[in-house]
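Lab notes, practical 5.
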Amino acid sequence: MKEILEVRGDFQMRQLDLDDLEQFNALLRYAFQVTTDELLKTGWEEDEIMYAKMPVLKASYVLGWFYHEKLASMIVVYPMQVNIQDEIMEMGGVTGVATYPEYVGRGLIGALIERVIAHMKEEGQIMSFLYPYFIPLYRKFGWEIVSDKITFTIKDSQLPKAVPVPGMVERVDLDSGDLKNVYEYFAAQTHGALIRHDLEWEEYWRWDNDDMIAAIYYNERHKPLGYVVYYLKNEIFHVKEIVSLNSEARHGIWNYISAHKSMLNTVVGFNYSGEPMAFLFEDSEMVENIEPYIMARIVDAEEFFLEYPFPLQPDFKIHFRIHDEHAPWNDGDFAVWWEDGKTCCRRVEEAPDVNLVELNIRTLTAMMLGYKRPSYLYEHEYLKTEYYMLQILERLIPVGKPCFSDNF
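Output from the prediction step:
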C-alpha cells in the first residue's frame, strides 16, 4: 500500500516509484513540449528515453498529486552536491515541476514545493538549486537568482591569435575519463560548481546530438588541464562548455578553436563565470547577452552558517533576523559567532539591535553566495542594518559569483 501524504477531495499526494515510470515520463514530455520528432533528432527512440529516465526516478525524491490514480502534478528532487566557497555542501536539485493544464489553479504545485523544502531539510540538503521556467513562482517560495548565463558571439576575424603553449589538444570520446577528471578538479576549486557524479554526467549528455565533440588540452607531460565540448554546423562553432584549470590550458583551447577559422565564420557559446569575455580579446567588439540562469535557496539557515567557510572570524556576534514563510525553522533570529576557529550558530528568541542584519531568505541566499554584494542589497533596500555592518559583511563574504553551468 502506497503512503498517502495528503488528500484534497479526489486528489491524493504521494511519492512516485518505478510503477509510475510511464506516467512520470508522459507528464515530463507534455509539460516541457518534447516531441517525438525532437527525440529522434537527438538519437532517442520513444521507449529509450522513458527507460533512460529510470535511474532518475530511482535516485530522486519524486512527489506527485494523483487524480483517480492519474498523475496530475509532480516535482523532482535530485540529491546533489555543490561547491560553496570551497566547501562541498549537500544540495537538492529541484526539477520536473509540472502540472497538466486542466489541474492548474488548484494550488497543487505550491503544496508540492512546501513538502519538498521540508524533505530536503530532513535529508540534510542545506541548499537547493533549480533552473526556473517562471522566476516569480520560485521567488515566492524563497529561491533567488544566483548565477547568470552569458551567450557570446565571436566573428572569425575576432578570434585570438595563437599563443605558444607547450602542450597540445586531442579529440577524445565523450565518456573520456580525462574529461571527467578535468571537470572534477575544476569543480573542486570553483565556487558554485556542481559536483558531477554518474547521474549528473548522464543528464549533462542526455539531449546532445551525435555530432557533439570533446577535445582535451594536455600539457607537455600529457596531463589533462582543460577541455572544450562543441559541435560544428553551418559554419558555426557551437561551444557547449569550456573548462580550463590554468592560463596555459585556456590559451591552448582557444588556439584549437581558432584553428577552425577556415571552416567557420562564427563561434557561439555560453559563459557562466559571471564575467563578460570581451575584455580578454584584442578585438572586444563582440556581442554578449546576459540572462538569469540558476536560482538557489538556503534550505537550512542554521546548518548553512555552520558550514559556510567565513574568511574572517570576528570576536563579536552577528545577529540575523531572517524572514522565511515557507520554512518555519529558518524564520526568526539567529546569532552567529566564532570560537576556537569554528563558526557557531544558534536560534535566539529575540536578537538585540546591535550588529543586527534583517533580510528574507532570498536576499540571504543571493548575498552569501556572492551574487549580489551586501552594499548593493542595502542600497536597494533588500536588507536592513546599520551602515557599519555593511563593511563587516563585505569582509565576511568572499567576492565572486557562482559559476554553475549544468541544467537538470
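Observations recorded by the TA: The domain at 300-396 is CATH 3.30.1050.10 (Nonspecific Lipid-transfer Protein; Chain A). The chain has three domains: 6-146, 150-291, 300-396.
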